[in-house]
Amino acid sequence: MSDLPLVIANPAAGGGTGRERWWAASGPVADRLGRHDLVWTEAPGHAERIARAEGNSRPLLIAYGGDGTASEVARGLALSGGSAELGLLPSGTGNDFAGDAGVPTRLAEAARFLRNTLARPTDLGQVEDASGAKRYFLNSFSLGLAASVAERASSGAGLGKATYAAAAAREVARFRPVSLRVGMGENPRRPRTLLNLTVLNSRRFGGGIPLAPPADPGDGVLDAVLIGPLGPVALMDAIFRLTRETHFGRREIEHHRITHATVGSLPGTGSASELLSEIDGDVLRWRDSVSVSVVPGALRIRRTEPRRSGRDPGA
User: Residue 243: what pLDDT?
Assistant: First the structure.
């Protein structure tokens, strides 16, 4: 047991600059955050294991890294069953959840934010397939274009913004909509042809895109955004609408507020039964079909209330 916060730090965050950024700001961070312990992760999954081991013995676990690191620490903390609070020090490529949580991007300011901000009950999403395999997500779960972009980006030399931008450009040019069986909430599954399906716990996705403007990570529901096939002109209009948070006005874009959903491959279409997905930046494959559900108030995270744009997202 220790009364000190534990920073779980990913040296590979931010395209491999995590360690350098930390030591450059470590003095101001310590001044604002106070005494703390620090442990560096050594491989994917290590942050989750640390959080699972420390969730019952620390008052505060702090994820230093990007969305993937935050997700790992959140999963480990949830699996520990511990009462530790979660804080975020963003140092990744996208930092979508941290940005939506109000955490400043500069490390010294983020440390002050963590010291002065109360923890709020926060939901997690959960994905489970027919084999019983499960995975929590903190920010997002996607099928379709976003998963394909994540897979292409993960094979690049680095995971910086340029890598994701290049991967997105290539995939948009070549990607073909996928055929799925989709059931939102109590609605039965039906065949759908979609460019992308994303279930979100916060507003932001893909490096700051406000994909789900109404989302609130503490409201006990998830926000699903389904995008149907879009031609080049329609795609450009949708991108423009995204910047104004009015993309729900396009008929090809649906928004559902859900506590659960089911998604599966569509037999007879020539598609493999395996589902390629993106979860908080990680690429995972699932067998045949998955259920997606919310775990209300699973964690307490130091964050602000969601920002409200004041716009009607369907306008």
Answer: 78
